[in-house]
Design goal:
The protein is α/β, with parallel strands linked by helices. Helix content is 44%, strand content 12%. It has one domain: Collagenase (Catalytic Domain) (3-Layer(aba) Sandwich), CATH 3.40.390. Strand 3 (56-58), helix 3 (65-77) and strand 4 (90-95) form a beta-alpha-beta unit. The structure holds zinc ion. Residues 16, 18, 139, 143, 185, 188 line the site of zinc ion.
C-alpha cells in the first residue's frame, strides 16, 4: 500500500515516485537469451542493455544475477516499439530513491530504487507469476509511454477515464487500489495489468482493457486465449 507519494509537474518534465503494492515469482520465455546472460559479466551488462534495447542503462552491474535476468525477460515481454527506439531512453537500476519509493519516472528515464532491486523486489506481486521488482519496472515504463510525445496518451486516457476535476475518481473500474491515486497511476497500473493480467483485466476493467488495446498496444493482446491462437 502506498505510504508516501510525490508527483511534480513542470513544463516538459514529469516526475512520479511510486510505491507499488506487493504482489510474485514466474517462469518466462526467452530462455535462450537467459542462458547467454548466464555467461555475461556484470561489467558488460549496461552495454548489453544498450545494444539489445537501445537504452542508456546504469546500475545493471549492481543487480543480482536473477534480477538482471528478470530485467531482460521483462523488456523482452514488451512490444519492441515500446522499448527500442520507443519512449523509454534511460534505465537506472539500484538508484537511491529512499525506502518508501520503489520506482521513479523522470521524463524518458526510469529509475528502479535500491530497495526494489534488493530483497523486497523478490516479493510476489498481486499479479500471479510476477515479482514486485518486475511489476515496478513495467509500471514505470507505463509512465514513460504515457508521458511520451508531450503526454499524448496520458491526456487521451484522462479525457476518457478522468474527465473534469482531476481529483474525481476515475470512470469505470480501475485495475487496482493504487490506480485510484491519480490518472497517471491509473494509466501505469492499466499498462501493467494489460500486459501481465490480461484475462482478469478484460473481465474486471473492460473499458480500460478496450482502450489500452488499440491506443497503447497497437491491437496486440496477451490473453491466454489470444496467445493460444
Ligand atoms: Zn506510478
Amino acid at each position: 500500500m502506498p505510504t508516501r507519494r510525490f508527483a511534480l509537474l513542470w513544463p516538459g518534465v514529469v516526475v512520479v515516485l511510486d510505491r507499488v503494492p506487493h504482489g510474485v515469482g514466474p517462469a518466462w520465455s526467452a530462455m535462450d537469451s537467459i542462458q547467454q546472460l548466464e555467461a555475461l559479466k556484470r561489467s558488460a551488462r549496461n552495454r548489453f542493455l544498450a545494444g539489445r534495447y537501445g537504452l542508456v542503462s546504469v546500475g545493471a552491474d549492481r543487480l543480482s544475477r536473477h534480477k538482471f535476468q528478470q530485467i531482460v525477460e521483462t523488456l523482452d515481454d514488451l512490444p519492441p516499439d515500446l522499448v527500442r527506439n520507443g519512449p523509454i531512453a534511460g534505465l537506472s537500476l539500484g538508484a537511491d530513491l529512499g525506502l518508501e519509493t520503489y520506482g521513479e519516472t523522470v521524463d524518458t528515464s526510469v529509475a528502479i530504487g535500491l530497495v526494489t532491486c534488493r530483497g523486497v523486489g523478490n516479493r510476489p506481486h498481486v499479479i500471479p507469476g510476477l515479482t514486485l521488482f518486475q511489476a515496478t519496472v513495467v509500471h514505470e515504463i507505463g509512465h514513460t509511454v504515457a508521458f511520451a510525445d508531450q503526454r499524448r496518451l496520458q491526456t487521451a486516457f484522462e479525457h476518457v477515464f478522468w474527465p473534469g476535476d482531476d481529483r474525481a475518481r476515475g470512470q469505470g473500474r480501475p485495475v487496482s487500489t493504487y490506480a485510484l491515486l491519480s490518472a497517471s497511476e491509473d494509466f501505469a497500473e492499466s499498462f501493467l495489468h494489460y500486459r501481465y493480467n490480461a484475462d482478469w483485466m478484460a473481465r474486471s476493467s473492460p473499458e480500460r482493457y478496450a482502450w489500452m488495446r488499440p491506443y497503447v498496444f497497437g491491437g496486440r493482446e496477451f490473453r491466454a486465449r489470444a496467445r493460444a491462437g
